[in-house]
TrEMBL record:
Belongs to the mTERF family. GO terms for molecular function: nucleic acid binding. GO terms for biological process: DNA-templated transcription termination. The keyword Ribonucleoprotein does not apply. This is Uncharacterized protein.
């Protein structure tokens, strides 16, 4: 109860941004250079720190070396340290024993694993800039309350280290209670917090509106599609939603087609309009798919047009144009294959007979450079 009351004083759940102005160092960057070289790191790694961290911000010229040594002693590799320095170079000016070590020890106490802490901090070193007593510890207590146990809370942080960069608000627990009220299983709530924690921290009224809208679309609250739909609608405005719907309608999609597509693959509405148009131009105009066909196979829209779709369709077109494959090939299955499986089935198997397939796969041949014989176009189906 006390936890819920205390939450009233917290800020809204959001990504925490430090308003630090980076300036080029005007003094001698020798402390940074010496520290990096002494730890076996390259001068290239030192460049980031010495050029964006004003030397005067470091009151002790030995501090950068002490910070790096702490990281090394804790088990951070050179690669980890380079990544941390690239993301948060100001950490080199922090007192290692006073500000950094206690936070590392706290993270070990909740995850029970130094290696997990190394992974967490390497991915999100911003954690080390947050106050231990005013943020990290209270945050974990509230997350533990929301997740039901310390183990669940720790697992959520391990899965999504960026949770620790957020602030919790009263809305967070209210939203969880609302999810329970409308019948969302606890397992799904835990997944939503872990995968899309920021969405759960939305203003309570807005969050309730989103959840109810998703339920009205008849999503199964126990499915992963429900989570994806809540996440998508949490971060897309009503205006943006309608704009995307109008774009789909311009290609001949009915409202039922759009809803069917969204229910099968909710994230399609979060893509930029430019990306969606390029994909629709290809599938509707080049492959000749109807809106109803595409609405039943919306997963194809998740792939990169230029890195995956066009190269693989070019390979398929090369094979069909050479009459080398008499099997009926489904584009949806072809696009879903792993690179290794695709290479084995369509490149290695036919490269001697049709050398063009490798160039097609590497994107060196344009898809529309091939000409299908009309009677063979039927093979190019969804």
């Amino acid at each position: 109860m006390m936890m819920l009351c205390n939450m009233q004083t917290l800020c809204f759940f959001r990504t925490y941004t430090y308003r630090t102005i980076y300036t080029t160092a005007t003094g001698d960057s020798l402390p940074f250079k010496t520290a990096f070289l002494n730890c076996g790191l390259s001068e290239k790694t030192n460049f980031r720190a010495s050029n964006v961290v004003p030397l005067q911000s470091c009151s002790d010229e030995n501090r950068p070396g002490a910070v790096l040594k702490l990281f090394q002693d804790f088990g951070f590799s050179h690669t980890d340290i380079t990544r941390i320095n690239s993301k948060q170079p100001h950490l080199l000016t922090f007192h290692p024993d006073k500000y950094i070590k206690p936070k590392l020890e706290f993270l070990v106490s909740i995850t029970k694993s130094e290696s997990e802490v190394v992974s967490i901090v390497s991915k999100n070193p911003l954690i080390l800039k947050r106050s231990l007593n005013n943020h990290l510890m209270p945050f974990f207590e509230m997350l533990k309350s929301a997740m039901g146990s310390e183990e669940n809370a720790a697992a959520a942080i391990i899965c999504n280290p960026f949770l620790l960069s957020f602030c919790l608000s009263a809305s967070f627990l209210q939203n969880i209670e609302f999810l329970q009220k409308v019948g969302v299983p606890k397992s799904q709530i835990l997944k939503l917090i872990t995968k899309y924690g920021q969405a759960v921290g939305e203003q309570h009224g807005k969050f309730c509106k989103v959840v109810l809208k998703v339920k009205e679309m008849e999503f199964d609250v126990s499915s992963s599609y429900f989570l994806d739909a809540v996440r998508t609608l949490s971060f897309i405005s009503d205006v943006a939603w309608e704009s995307r719907c109008e774009m789909y309608r311009s290609y001949g999609f009915s409202d039922d087609d759009i809803l069917t597509m969204f229910k099968k693959h909710p994230t399609i509405m979060s893509y930029s309009e430019k990306r969606i148009r390029e994909l629709l131009d290809f599938f509707v105009y080049k492959l000749g798919w109807s809106p109803s066909t595409l609405s039943n196979s919306p997963n194809v829209l998740q792939y990169s047009l230029h890195k995956r779709i066009v190269p693989r369709c070019s390979v398929l077109q090369a094979l069909v144009s050479k009459k080398c494959n008499n099997k009926s090939m489904m584009v949806t299955s072809l696009l879903a294959m792993t690179d290794s499986r695709f290479l084995e089935a369509f490149i290695t198997a036919y490269e001697d007979e049709v050398p063009e397939v490798m160039d097609a796969f590497k994107g060196k041949l344009r898809f529309d450079e091939y000409n299908f014989e009309p009677e063979r176009k039927a093979k190019f189906k969804a």
